[in-house]
Predict the 3D structure of the following.
Amino acid sequence: MKIINHLTKIIFAAGIILLQSCSSGKNNNENTQEGILKKEFLSNIKTEKSVLSSQEQELFLTGKVEYNPDKVVYYSPLISGVIDRTYFSLGDKVQKEQALLDVRSTEIGEFRANMISFDAEMKIAERELQSVQALFNDKLLSEKELLEAKSALKQAQTAYEKAKSDMSLYIDKGQGVFALKSPLSGYIVDKKAASGTPFSPDSDPLFTVADLSNVWIIANVYAGDLQFVKEGMSVEITTLAYPNEVFSGKINALSQVFDPEEKVLKARIVMPNKDLKFKPKMSVVVKLKNETHRNCLAIPSDALIFDDNKYFVVIEFASEKFEIKEIQIQGHYQKTTYIRSGLSIDDKIVIKNQLLIYSELKGK
């Protein structure tokens, strides 16, 4: 029995020695492998120095597409009558002097009669002025009488031109029917005319024609953003209708009076609209670059580490020696982050594999 116990102790001791030998060999292999990984890891680290830079930010303004008010006509009738027929629909393209409506109105006939009457009076006034001028040249009439003749002709011309202007939008089609012509080329952007509808000078505009070859983008500028928005600034415009397109323009004018309802200033951007992509009342987003001209530290945004509701970066303070620094953010622009505090100029910021270093340093 003693011999068996002795053999058991020898076997047990040999097993321990064997296990220790295997364990020692494994540790040596792991240490060697860790050294290789560390060397390869450090060779892939990339750093970039923090630098002083003028801070830039992106500012977004909401806005809408509006007509160019110099190229839009709201036709409000100056007479009474009834619409006999319409030749257009909402959104139609029309040419200047194209017939849009047929109307019946006795007042248009009066315009025509007045135009003929004023034309006759104007011709009489012209002959009278010629006679007075000849007598004045012969010193048979005074200068006062000459001026009176000139004034009479001027009044007759004014009355005739007004009557002619009143009739310029109408074509006499006979039997009391007159065609109403478009005052300019463009698109019908509003219509309140229908066959059989009566109208009068108190009626709403029967139709609105707008030239949409260029439009106004009206952007809302709140008081807090006013210091950054200036006339002449370049802007980029985007819309939900064309999510993959960016339109470039500039601020042509900035109102100096706050809108009493919206409590904003209005910035105007005149945009060419050759392809008619901008539709009146369409909502847009106007982006502009805000440059404060205030120098502060700037680093690549890729270097940021967000953890526990705070921002951190990893810096290399000596060769292959790193530390974590908590930072305060001033702002962002594209791929650059501006730092309020936490860094010094020329700090070497790790911008590649910084998360692995951060995790290792934080775990120590």
